[in-house]
Structure formats: structure tokens, C-alpha cells
Specification:
heterodimer, A: mainly alpha, B: 309 residues, alpha/beta, 11 helices, 41% helix, 13% strand, globular
């Protein structure tokens, strides 16, 4: 049972988008840089990607959930805490310890990762726009949870070797919760979120298992 | 048919006229002419209108100015048609802030019977929360303060009874919803000095008839009924079917009034609190505040009718 309607939720998203503008442009720019770095690695590029993901998750926890959604949803502080924790996990594992190498390889998993990233940055806002949630009501990559979770799963699919599972748990859980919310509030662009979450999790588990066999 | 005793006041007469005017304007919002239906709060004898207003989801519109203005219209319709009991909770997001916003824009909209809840695990936090609610509503004091969903009822009841003794609130209550925790609620009703209880009761969810409603009548506790439409589910289930012609025998012009009059016709019910975000729906709801009520035989017929649809 949610204490708000879809109309009110998108109203909050619109207020948030206006309040943080032009953070959306910066997020898209940095996101594209992160994707390019998986093709053309640079020194500390992987740490940069890790820091970017950490910052996005922490930002959404504080700016989106705590400062905006909390006005209409008593559960927002719990979501905020989860997003900040995910940000800290990315900061520690990928940015500080440098334990992840993000590389695009022309394998099935590599292409799937790229597809997730493309879906998060392009398809998701397009479907939202078609569903009547264009700017400023559009949840966008880097500053709102849905597309950022999908992008994160995509980048974790591009991680070389074994993907740390502790980084996968919260994005997948959020995608499942987001799907349930979409079902309750009839938000068409979010109906696929659980499929994305479960599909992404299965691909990561398959990738990790395949890696263990070939190592 | 059962009728309540005449409770005529200038406001009631004006509200009746408003009902007649509504009837002449829109078929769906018909309100029968006649005195406003009121019930006494057993612990004091104070009369309140049997139709109040809930705010779960409907008044949680955040800072959206357009949506806030729409809620001002909803509240104005409520007051214009004779309503006074408004129920909310700090759990309902921005609802209390939006109520305060609307009340500030309707300075002449009185009488107001302000009811909210305390909803936190810690007794000390409850004190701060209730003060915050009072500030959000912009009122001097609440008429009724309830322990929401029985959360830490031991601690909060202690505070509330103390507040009542000091005159900081007028009535003390506890709430549940969705038919949950009826055993604990019944225990509290039997053992604690409660003025009000709130629980779910509607034409399909009638569990409360077995124990809670008789117990409330026996103990002299006022009853606020929530979820009278099961959120919107009753309209989805039955709204496409025609209203039976015999509904006119208890001055019922639409399904909302059918569902509401079923509830308030129970003699142990003091008030029902439907929630809506639309002024036209509020007009329909408030129509149930006037006219005749179904008697026990008619209520049984109402149940048979909807269960056979």
C-alpha cells in the first residue's frame, strides 16, 4: 500500500528535476564518459567509473529520496539509507580499492551490458515520454533510481572477471520494488523493472560461473 | 425506515439547501433534503456529523500548488455541505501540511473536529510528532488524538490520557485498519478509558459486527469507520451495475451514498471517513449526510444485493 498516487509521484519528480537542473546534463555527460572508458581505458578510468556510480547512488539517496520523496512517502528515509550504502559500497570496492575493471568485450554478456546501459540512458526516458512523462516529469539516468539501477546492472555486466555480488544486491532489490510500485501505480515504463533486475542478476550469475569454470 | 432525531441548526439548514442545490445541478450528487444526520460521542454527548473525511493518499500531494488548490475545493465542498470531522496521520506524507494549507484558505470553514494520530515507536518522539502535527494543521489543539495502528499504545496512551487531563486534547482513541489486530483492539476497548476507536467496516468487510461494534456500544465508545469503499474497490466491483430502485427508499442517489448509508445506519457507528481527491465525489459522499437511513431489514437486503451482483 503506497501513500501517494502516480500523479503526485511524477509531480515530485518534476519539482526535483527543476531543483537539480542541470545535474541531469552533467550526469548524462559523465555517464557517456564512463561508457567510452569501457572501450578506451585510461589510467584510473575504472576508479573514475566506480566513483561516478558511488556518487550517483549517494546523490539519489540524499537529494532525491531524503530531500524530495520523503515529503510524500514515510518509507523514503529507508530507501535513502539503502542508496547511500550502495554508494559507499561502490566507493570502497571500485573507487578506493580499485577492485573492478570495466571493459567492453564483444561477447554475449558484453553486448547485454551495453544494451542495459543503452536502455537506461535512451529507451527508458523515451518510453516514459511516450507514456506522458516527458520533461520535467521524466525520471532520468544518474539522478533518479530506476534508470540508474538499470545502468548500474549494465556496468556490472561489463566488469571483467567476477562481478562482486555485494554490488548487485541492492540494485536488483530496488528494481523488484520499483516494479511492484509500477504495478500498484500503473506506471508503464517501470513495469519491466523486475524483468531487468532478474534478467541482469541471472546474466551476472552466469558470467561469474562461466568465469569460475574458465579460470 | 430509520430516521435520526432532528438536529437542526443554521449550518444544517444551509447545508441542506446546498444539498438541494447540488441535486438540481448534477444527478450524481443528489443529497436528500432534511436535517443533517449526527451521532453523539458517548463519553460527552457532543454531536458530530456522521460523514467525515479521511485523508489517506488523497491529501498527500506534496508541494504541488495546482493539486493543493484542488484539495482546497474538496475541503470547501466538505464544509459547505455540513462536514466537520477530518481525520489524518503523520504517516500520510504531506496530508497534514495540505490540510493546514487548505484550512488557512478557508478561515470561515467551521466547525472543525480535528482528528489525527500519533505514529512512532517511541513515546518521547510521539510528543514531538503531535506538536508537529498541530503546527502543520495550524490549530490550537486537536479534538481527537489516536494511537495509529496500536503502535506503542502503552506509551502513547499514557501521554494522551495525560494530555486529555490537561485539556490539550479533548478525546483519546486508538485505530486499526484492514481488519487487523481486532483481538488487541477489543482488549483495549474493554480495559482502557477510550473515547474513540477506529477500524475498518464496510458492506463486504463486516467482521466488526461480531465483536467490535457491540463492544463499542456496550462500553460507550465512539466508532470512526475507515476504508468504507475498500479504497476504490467497491466501485470497481459494483459501480458498473445499476443502483437498485429501492435505494430511493432511504434517499440514496448513487453508489457512494449506498455504501456510506449502509455503514452509518449501524447504531454503534458514530462517523465514517471516506477519502476523495475530487470535489464532485465529495459532493456525492456528503449527500449521505442527509435523508433517511436503511433499517436492519433494508441493510440485510443491501448485503444480499451486492453479494449477488
Amino acid at each position: 500500500m503506497l501513500p501517494f498516487t502516480a500523479d503526485v509521484l511524477f509531480s515530485v519528480v518534476a519539482q526535483y528535476n527543476r531543483a537539480v537542473w542541470p545535474a541531469q546534463i552533467i550526469a548524462y555527460g559523465l555517464g557517456l564518459v564512463a561508457v567510452l572508458l569501457t572501450f578506451r581505458p585510461l589510467l584510473n578510468g575504472d576508479r573514475f567509473i566506480g566513483a561516478l556510480l558511488a556518487a550517483a547512488w549517494a546523490w539519489i539517496g540524499v537529494a532525491y529520496y531524503l530531500m524530495h520523496v520523503a515529503v510524500i512517502d514515510f518509507a523514503a528515509p529507508a530507501y535513502a539509507a539503502a542508496f547511500v550504502i550502495q554508494g559507499l559500497l561502490f566507493a570502497w570496492t571500485a573507487a578506493i580499492r580499485g577492485k573492478i575493471t570495466f571493459r567492453f568485450r564483444p561477447t554475449a554478456v558484453g553486448w547485454a551490458g551495453l544494451a542495459f546501459v543503452f536502455f537506461a540512458m535512451a529507451v527508458y526516458p523515451l518510453v516514459g515520454w511516450l507514456a506522458g512523462h516527458g520533461w520535467p516529469r521524466a525520471p532520468l539516468f544518474g539522478v533518479t533510481p530506476g534508470p540508474t539501477s538499470i545502468f548500474t546492472i549494465g556496468m556490472l555486466l561489463l566488469a571483467e572477471g567476477r562481478t562482486p555480488l555485494h554490488l548487485v544486491v541492492l540494485p536488483v532489490l530496488w528494481l523488484l520494488a520499483g516494479g511492484a510500485m509500477a504495478w500498484l501505480l500503473n506506471i508503464p515504463e517501470d513495469i519491466v523493472l523486475p524483468l531487468v533486475g532478474i534478467g541482469g542478476l541471472c546474466l551476472i550469475l552466469w558470467k561469474n560461473r562461466h568465469r569460475a569454470k574458465t579460470a | 425506515m430509520q430516521r435520526t432525531g432532528p438536529e437542526l441548526s443554521r449550518r444544517a439548514v444551509l447545508a441542506s439547501l446546498a444539498g438541494i442545490a447540488a441535486a438540481s445541478l448534477g444527478a450524481g450528487a443528489v443529497a436528500a433534503p432534511g436535517p443533517m444526520l449526527k451521532r453523539a460521542i458517548p463519553s460527552t454527548g457532543e454531536q458530530v456529523p456522521v460523514i467525515g473525511m479521511g485523508t489517506w493518499i488523497t491529501f498527500n500531494v506534496g508541494d504541488d500548488q495546482a493539486l493543493r488548490e484542488e484539495r482546497v475545493k474538496v475541503l470547501k465542498t466538505f464544509f459547505d455541505m455540513g462536514g466537520s470531522v477530518i481525520d489524518s496521520s503523520p504517516m500520510y506524507g504531506s496530508s497534514e501540511a495540505v490540510i493546514g494549507y487548505a484550512l488557512a484558505r478557508l478561515p470561515d470553514a467551521r466547525p472543525l473536529f480535528a482528528a489525527t494520530k500519533v505514529w512512532t515507536w517511541l513515546q518521547a518522539l510521539g510528543v514531538r510528532q503531535m506538536e508537529n502535527s498541530r503546527r502543520l494543521w495550524g490549530i490550537e489543539r486537536f479534538d481527537l488524538m489516536q494511537v495509529h495502528n496500536l503502535l506503542n499504545w502503552e506509551g502513547h496512551l499514557e501521554t494522551l490520557l495525560d494530555y486529555k487531563a490537561q485539556g490539550r486534547i479533548r478525546y483519546v482513541g486508538v485505530t486499526t485498519s484492514h481488519g487487523r489486530r481486532h483481538d488487541t483492539l477489543a482488549k483495549l476497548m474493554a480495559e482502557q478509558p477510550l473515547d474513540f476507536v477506529q477500524f475498518t467496516y464496510n458492506i463486504l468487510d463486516r467482521e466488526a459486527e461480531k465483536r467490535l461494534l457491540p463492544l463499542a456500544a456496550e462500553r460507550g465508545i465512539a466508532v470512526i469507520v475507515n476504508r468504507p469503499f475498500r479504497q476504490k474497490e467497491l466501485f470497481h466491483l459494483f459501480g458498473r451495475h445499476p443502483l437498485p430502485e429501492w435505494a430511493a427508499e432511504f434517499d440514496c442517489a448513487n453508489w457512494a451514498q449506498f455504501f456510506l448509508k449502509f455503514i452509518v445506519a449501524h447504531p454503534a457507528v458514530t462517523c465514517v471517513i471516506p477519502a476523495t481527491s475530487r470535489a464532485d465525489h465529495m459532493q456525492e459522499n456528503m449527500g449521505a449526510l442527509y435523508g433517511r437511513l436503511p433499517d436492519p431489514q433494508m441493510r440485510a437486503r443491501m448485503i444480499r444485493y451486492v453479494e449477488n451482483l
